[in-house]
Structure formats: structure tokens, C-alpha cells
Amino acid sequence: MSVDRWVVCEQCDAVYTRRKLQPGEVADCARCGHHLYRRHRFDVEILLALTLATAVVFVLANVYPIVTIDAQGSRNAATVWGAVIATWESGVGFVAFLSAMLVFFFPLAQIVLFSYVLLALHRGARPREFRQAMKALALMQPWSMAEVFMLGILVAVVKLAGMMEVIPGIGLWSFAMLTLLLAALTSYDLQDIWDIAERLDDREAPAAGSTGERA
Amino acid sequence: MSRFVTAAELGLLGCHRCGHVLKRPGQGALGHCDRCGATLHRRKPQSLERCWALLIAAMILYVPANTMTMMRTTNLLNSTDDTIISGVIYLWVQGSWELAAIVFIASVMVPISKFIALLTLLITVRRGSDWDRPGRTRLYRIIEKIGHWSMLDVFVVALLVALVHFDVFGRVEAGGGAVAFGAVVVLTMLASMSFDPRLIWDPPARHD
Ligand SMILES: [Zn+2]
Ligand SMILES: [Zn+2]
Question: I need a labelling partner for A71 at 20 to 30 A (CA). Which of A80, A189, B112, B144 fits?
């Protein structure tokens, strides 16, 4: 197997021959403007380091309270999981389910699967369940919404600030970091990871090398 | 404008999941991608039908999402029910017009723009229109990118429910509006995912 010579635009079906890009360069579809493929500035090692940092920040963001509110001495704190339980008990199970999946489980699964895939690629081989892991990552990507929750925290804080004292917690700063790191991580196209894995295969089997050819 | 060669014309097929390009095996069942194992389709299956069904369901649910209570604030003296719009007005009156604008954009403008955009795409594709194809594809990319921000108000309610539960100073509870609104966001996301932008470019005869 070798890196594809062709690229097909997934949004308009136009076919191109693949060029070798400079780091940070993006190839756009000349017909519809879609990003066809890119060469990232990060390599696997940087991406792996980012993933592990994201894992640490994810733990902090979920262990420590995001905000604490104080109404004349009575205090309440909230975490993501606290919001899941509170909405469940409030009788809106679907809201609890959405918060749990979109803000907790999907980001967590993304971090775990990215670590799994990248650790193996860093060692120079595909992990055993590479296909399944990549499939799960592709399915979860649109449903991971830490950044939306982050904006939700800001709105909730402003709504409450008029009535009571709002104390930001370690969880808030961790959550902000989590948002940034997850955005950096998921800016990496999954197709790039497929291409990285194929380049590893090529290195092992140099006979299957290929060069660009005109259409 | 130069003429572009399409994968359909060359008998090639780009895998929708991993981008691998395959030589298309005839007209029958396409089987699976030999790189990632995804089930292959020339175009997303029943793209227009699924998109219509999900979009109509979302538009119907958008009515209770706006009329039903999003959250109820109770204290010793009284209780107030908030909808999405009254929540925006509350933020505005409080003086944080920036956040009022953000919530208004995420909860009202984004879903309504998404309804209009998907309706436009569905109708122009069904007619086989050749009107501004790059523009309509860009429109599709925009709604794909912004759709999930509508979940904002659902998360705000979840956080307020978690934070505000005092004996004396009152409590916040979520209402049916939050459930309906969450469902609208999920349905519009599924609707835009099931739409295949390649249909914008296909000649009318080739819709399968
Ligand atoms: Zn294109
Ligand atoms: Zn594939």
C-alpha cells in the first residue's frame, strides 16, 4: 500500500494529483474551496505531547470546581459531572445525557484514542485496533463540545454575578486550557493521521514507493 | 472557468472517512474501503430524504423549544419562568449586551440560518440548479462549522441548575424547553451531516 497519488474532493468530487506540501501549507479545492489536505506544522511527537497535556488538563478540569457561588455564606460549586447529576435530578434526563456525552465522554474518548493511536505511531507501527480507533474518532469529532460549554460557563457566570458572589475555581482555568488544547488537537485532520500511518508502511516496504503523476 | 474532472467520471471513489481513493468496482455494491473499512457510497445514502426528514423534525421542535420554559427560578417569594428569548432579554437588561448578543446568535440566529440554508440547498439540489455552486458549497461548510454552537443555552441551563440550589436563596430548575432545544440542535446537526454537498455539483440525472 502506498500514499495515494490522487485526491478526491469530498464536497464536489473533483480529482487532483497529490502534491508534496511544505509544513503548514494547505491544498484547497480549486473548484469549491474545500480544504483537500494539508501538511501540519506539528509532527507526531508534538501531537502526542499535546494529547498527554490535554489528558492532564482534562483531569484537573473535572476534579476541581469550575465556579463556586456564595450567597451570604451558603456556597455551591459546580463541575461538569455536577451539572450532569443536577439536571438528571431536575427531571430533564436528556439535558443530563447531552452534557455527559458532549462535554465529558466524547472529549475523554478523543483523548484516550488519540493517545492510543499516536503512542503506537510514535513507536513506528499502527496500533492493533487502528481502524476501529480512527472510525470512533471520526464519528465523535463533530459531537465533542468542550468549547461550547466553556462559553456557557462565561454566560452562566455573568447571569449570576448580578445576584451573588461568583468565585472562579481551578476547574475554570483548566477548562479554558482544555478547550484550547482540544481545538489544537482536533485541528489535525484524521486523514493526515491515515497518511502518516501509510508513510510508516512505505518506510517498511520501500518497493511500493510512488511519485506524483499527471491526470 | 476551466473544466474539472470528477471522480465519478474517472471511475474513482474517494472514501468519505479516510480520504483514500479507490478504483470503483462496477455499478453494484461498492463494498468497503480497503484502508479504513468504511462502507462505501458514491453519494451519502438517501441524502436528500434523510436531510428533509431531520430538518422538518427540527423545525417542528423549534416551536416548543422557544415557547416552553427553558428554566424556572424559584425563591421564597416567587418563581419566574424563562424562555430562550426572555433569557436573552435578561442579559441585555443586566447590561451585558455582548453576552446577550452571543446567546441570541447561538440560540436564534444560528438555528434559523441553518433551517434557511438547508432548505435552500435541498430545494436547489432537487431542481438541479447550477446557480453559484461554489457559493452553495461554502454555505454548507459554514453551517457544518457553526451548528454545534447552538448547544450553548442548554449548557448554560445545566450549569445554573448545578449551581443554584439553595434553601433560602432559591433554586433553578430546567424545563421542557431545554429538552426540546437540545433535540433541535442534535437534529439539525444530523440533518446537515446527512446532506451530501457533491449533489450540488452533480448533473441532475446522477442522483441515486
Ligand atoms: Zn471541491
Ligand atoms: Zn477509507
Answer: A80
- B6 Cα: distance to centroid of ligand 1 (angstroms): 10
Burial class for B74, CB neighbours closer than 10 Å (0-12, 13-18, 19+): middle
| Helix or strand holding residue B82 (H, E) | strand B79-82
> Contact at 8 Å (CB) between B22 and B33?
yes
B118 and B22 assigned to the same domain:
no
For A149, which residue in chain B has the nearest alpha carbon? B155
Inter-residue contact A60 to A174 (CB < 8 Å)? yes
Q: Which ligand is nearest to the CA of B17?
A: 2
Where residue A211 falls among pLDDT bands split at 50, 70, 90?
very low
Collect all residues of chain B within an 8 Å Cβ-Cβ radius of residue A67: 163
Find, in chain B, the residue whose alpha carbon is nearest to that of A159. Answer: B91
The predicted structure's pLDDT at residue B205: 59
Range from A68-82, A182-196, A197-211, B63-77 carrying the lowest mean pLDDT: A197-211
- Give the chain A residue whose CA is nearest to the CA of B41: A10
Radius of gyration of chain A (CA): 21
Are B16 and B101 within one domain?
no
B25 and B61 share one domain = no
Q: How many domains does chain B have?
A: 2
- Contact call for residues B165 and B108 (beta carbons, < 8 A): no
Looking at residue B60, which CATH number applies to its domain?
Answer: 1.20.140
Q: What is the pLDDT of residues A81-96, one digit of tens each?
A: 999 999 999 899 999 9
- The predicted model scores a pTM of 0.91
Cβ–Cβ below 8 Å for A32 and B38: no
- In the prediction, which pLDDT does A50 show? 94
Judgement on whether residues B83 and B120 belong to the same structural domain of the protein: yes
For residue B27, the model assigns a pLDDT of 61
**Domain boundaries in chain A?**
1-39, 42-202
Structural domain including B23 reads 1-42
Maximal CA-CA distance, chain A: 74
Contacts of A66 in chain B (CB under 8 A): 159
User: Quick one: pLDDT band at residue A215, thresholds 50, 70, 90?
Assistant: very low
Contacts of B17 in chain A (CB under 8 A): 134-135, 138
Q: Are residues B103 and B179 in the same domain?
A: yes
Alpha carbon distance A194, A205 (integer Å):
17
Show residues of chain A in contact with B137, CB under 8 Å: 11-12, 32-34
> What ligand has the least distance to the C-alpha of B134?
1
